Amino acid sequence: MNRSAGKVDWTALMALAATIAALAAVASSVIVVRGVREDAARTRFNAGLESLWHLTEEWNSEEMTDTRSHAAASLLAAKPTADVNAVLDFFDEVALLLQRGALDEEMVWHEFYWPIANYWFASQEYIQQVQHDDPTVWTDLNATVQRLVGIEARRKRQSTGMAVPSLKEMRDFLTDETGADECTDDEEVRKTPL
Asked: Could you tell me where the DSSP H helices lie in 60-190?
């Protein structure tokens, strides 16, 4: 008669229990790490969203609306003023925040693509003049414009060339920015070179 047949191998049972405990600890760690990452992503998203709201408020503020109107009128007259700098500086700040990860690229595209693209492309001659003296000016914005044009092209399923505003679209956009009616009798707006 074999006396060990009914006995429990306590060593094997303890090893099995230790293995199960280790696996449970690893699973718990994975769950905790995943939760921390999700919380961090949610916090980053909420902070970016709040930043975007503040930028939108600033963009639509009375002061910026006046600045935009003057900038648009000066671009239409082919005589850019410091107001153009202010608008491009605003967008350069948006670009920097985007590049640093504080803003989401798709949300920036959704909220600001059209004004960024119109001001950027309507200001090209002026931008080149300013960058001749200081090549670092608006470089963050330049890179961001290219990224946003790519998103616009992808979203509309068209080439990047088609995603860039046409001269007519830029003229219409800038005219709207001035607050002038499209049927205005304002001689300065009607004779614009843009």
From this structure: 62-76, 82-99, 105-122, 124-133, 139-156, 160-163, 167-178, 187-190
